[in-house]
Automatic annotation (TrEMBL):
GO molecular function, one term: ATP binding
One matching Pfam family: PAN_2
Protein name: Apple domain-containing protein
Keyword annotations: ATP-binding, Membrane, Nucleotide-binding, Signal, Transmembrane, Transmembrane helix
Species name: Tagetes erecta (African marigold)
Length: 450
């Protein structure tokens, strides 16, 4: 004798069916017949223990005990009839079941699938309903049918049915059924929305059915006002920043223009300045500053030719704002302002002259870019020697002006064996009377005759 090792689950249901039982023998199993208004379902004769269970999706299924292996196995879906959309949760909550059990959401924009890969899991609201914003609620109208319900209102029109649901916070949908007169029908209100059945062209139930699904508007006026405030604040901030940027830019341009005018004024103050040329004229004359011939403290020097054939040298100053004082001093006085951060000996040309003499590189002081100087190196050297003669530390060795004129006129030569230690300005002392009495020579005596 075999026994059931896994008893069937305890089922409690208040669902009523018209059933009839045929008893063969007390030891036999009972076949069950379930009769619907237009269909009859026959449960096959039992050969082993079996039980019926109402499933969560509304299906009534028959399970049969299998001895090999020992387990309960689904044998029959008793309530399968029609298009297969007759079950409250065949497609989950808030969903529509159409032909061949195709599951979908009522309308994208208000509902979305719980799981895109499993349509039968149902749909959820994108914007949940709220009792605090009923004035922003509306209805989606669908030509569908629903599970059998008991009418909440009879002999009412469509608008009354919709308004009643709209005024009831717990109402999620209103179903309106009518025969031929839409002003008189039955209204069904529900607080839970399960699977809705689509109506097919070959389906006729004898009445017209409409579903009004309550939805919360995605953008309510309050949200619109908040968005408008945010957008307005953003635009206002942008406009203010734009105005500030325009003001700063205008100020900078005006300041630069003013500074340029001031710098031009500095140049106009220089007496004896040569003719001034525009930047375009200088660009043309130097062939866009292509031939660089030197570089100085204020910029580079380029060779050029004017329209009349005159050869010129153009110095491109690298700005005037930080060097205009030095530039003006050099032009006006013929010398530049000393930089006190440099060594003291670099302030004087004499030190450079003395150093070149000691290294026998006096020719390095001759301008290599001057053809005239390069062609008359001998005369240049003679002038250097004459200058050295005039700068002798011992004034008694300095030439007179008549001697200088004779040297310039080639009437005599510069004295040989000169002292080139010009920077050693020793103070000469003269003994007067007692050896301890020392008298410092005056400037006029130190200068001596020339």
């Amino acid at each position: 004798m075999r026994k059931i090792t896994k008893p069937p689950p305890t089922i409690i249901s208040d669902q009523r069916r018209n059933t009839g039982v045929l008893c063969n023998h007390w030891r036999s199993f009972f076949p069950l017949i379930i009769r619907y208004p237009d269909e009859t379902t026959l449960i096959p004769k039992a050969v082993s223990p079996q039980y019926i269970q109402l499933m969560p999706d509304g299906h009534l299924k028959l399970f049969v005990w299998q001895f090999e292996p020992e387990e309960w196995e689904e044998n029959l879906d008793i309530t399968t009839y029609g298009y297969g959309c007759n079950y409250p949760l065949i497609c989950g909550r808030n969903s529509i079941c159409s032909a061949n059990r195709q599951c979908g959401c009522p309308r994208f924009g208000y509902f979305r699938p719980v799981d895109d890969t499993q349509p039968d899991m149902g749909c959820i609201e994108i914007t949940p309903l709220t009792c605090h914003s009923t004035q922003y609620q509306d209805f989606i109208t669908l030509n569908v049918s629903y599970v059998t319900l008991t009418a909440d209102m009879d002999m009412v029109d469509m608008e009354t049915c919709k308004q009643t649901c709209l005024n009831n916070c717990s109402c999620k949908a209103a179903f309106f059924q009518y025969d031929s007169n839409a002003s008189s029908g039955e209204c069904f209100l529900t607080s839970e929305l399960f699977t809705i059945q689509a109506i097919y062209s070959d389906y006729y139930s004898g009445y017209n059915s409409l579903a009004f699904i309550k939805v919360q508007n995605v953008t309510s006026p309050s949200v619109s006002h908040r968005v408008a405030r945010v957008v307005g604040s953003t635009i206002g901030t942008f406009v203010i920043l734009l105005l500030v940027a325009i003001g700063v830019t205008t100020y900078v341009i005006h300041k630069r223009k003013r500074n340029a005018e001031i710098e031009e004024g500095y140049l106009d103050q220089l007496p004896g300045m040569p003719n001034r040329f525009s930047y375009e004229e200088l660009t043309t004359a130097t062939e866009n500053f292509s031939k660089k011939v030197g570089e100085g403290g204020f910029g580079s020097v380029f060779e050029g030719n004017l329209k009349d054939g005159l050869k010129i040298a153009v110095k491109c100053l690298e700005g005037l704002s930080h060097i205009k004082k030095s530039f003006l001093a050099e032009i006006l006085c013929g010398r530049k302002i000393f930089d006190r951060s440099e060594p003291e000996e670099s302030w004087h040309l004499l030190f450079v002259f003395q150093k070149c003499w000691e290294q026998e590189t006096l020719l390095d002081m001759v301008d290599k870019h001057s053809e005239d100087m390069q062609l008359h190196k001998t005369e240049v050297m003679e002038m250097m020697k004459l200058a050295s003669w005039c700068l002798q530390t011992n004034f008694k060795r300095r030439p007179s002006m008549s001697s200088v004129v004779k040297v310039l006129e080639a009437g005599m030569n510069v004295e040989p064996h000169l002292d080139y230690n010009f920077t050693d300005l020793r103070i000469q002392e003269t003994e007067v009377g007692d050896e301890k009495d020392v008298t410092q020579l005056s400037v006029s005596i130190l200068s001596g005759p020339r």
